[in-house]
Design brief:
This protein has 12 helices and 14 strands. The protein is α+β, with helices and mostly antiparallel strands. The termini are far apart.
């Protein structure tokens, strides 16, 4: 690990001020990715700005027809939340499927979506539910937030404060997990909004999370596992590695979508 300076601001204003003047500084949330990268010398920030002491960035609350989750809220807390479990049970199940118990006890919602790992679970939940990411500067719709492999719409020094998840009519999540890392070889989040519109978000398939227009069209016509399973996707654009070929991943999308719909239907 390369040497660095450590900072622990007491509030959001102090954190954003620090990041604004530290050109090579990085914000530290749960540290599940950044610390590992630093240990392997794949990352070399000059400074770490530890957000762990900022109470205003944690917590779960109902806000009208939405659930607002603070950026520093741990995966384990989302999974165990009675409010999330009652109003968006698919999101609670998603959080409970991330990594192992140690990862869920340390990892955070904001850290996960800011990192935007192409096989992470939370980006599928955020995009699938059509959530809004609230930052220290603005509000960003999920469709505009994820921009590519480990890339988001966040600007230098901009911090995620919370994510507002609209409560859907019903939703479900299913993933085919790597047995070692628990990252998704393919994960599919399906959502039927209260208006009846359908959103389908896919993670693990390639260059970051994306929506599937083919599945959305099929499920808008018939919100059933059979309708999802009948969709055959092209392997073009899907990633391939030692775990799964592009063709296998494309096939898994329809399979996982069917399981997600079945979960949504209870």
């Amino acid at each position: 690990m390369y040497p660095f300076q450590y900072h622990r601001p007491a509030n959001l204003a102090e954190a954003t001020a620090l990041l604004g003047k530290l050109g090579e500084g990085k914000a530290l949330a749960g540290g599940q990715t950044l610390i590992a990268a630093m240990k392997l010398r794949l990352a070399q920030p000059s400074d770490l700005v530890d957000l762990g002491g900022i109470a205003e960035l944690s917590g779960i609350r109902a806000d009208g027809d939405a659930i607002v989750i603070g950026a520093l809220t741990r995966h384990a807390d989302v999974a165990a939340s009675a409010e999330v479990g009652k109003r968006i049970p698919a999101l609670a199940r998603l959080a409970g499927s991330i990594g192992d118990r140690q990862v869920r006890a340390a990892g955070t919602l904001g850290g996960s979506i800011a990192n935007n790992d192409p096989a992470a679970d939370y980006p599928a939940g955020v995009l699938g539910l059509g959530a809004t990411v609230v930052t220290s500067r603005r509000s960003i719709a999920a469709d505009d937030f994820f921009s590519g492999l480990y890339e988001t719409a966040l600007e230098p020094g901009e911090l995620i404060k919370s994510v507002s998840f609209p409560v859907p009519q019903r939703a479900g999540y299913a993933k085919f997990a790597n047995p070692a890392s628990r990252f998704a070889l393919i994960g599919v989040f399906v959502c039927q909004e209260k208006s009846g519109a359908v959103r389908v978000a896919v993670t693990g398939g390639g260059n970051g999370v994306f929506r599937s227009a083919e599945l959305e069209k099929a499920l808008a016509a018939s919100f059933t596992p059979a309708a999802a399973a009948a969709v055959k996707l092209s392997a073009d654009g899907f990633s391939g590695d030692l775990h799964a070929s592009p063709e296998y991943r494309a096939h898994l999308v329809s399979v996982m979508a069917g399981r997600a719909v079945a979960a949504a239907l209870g």
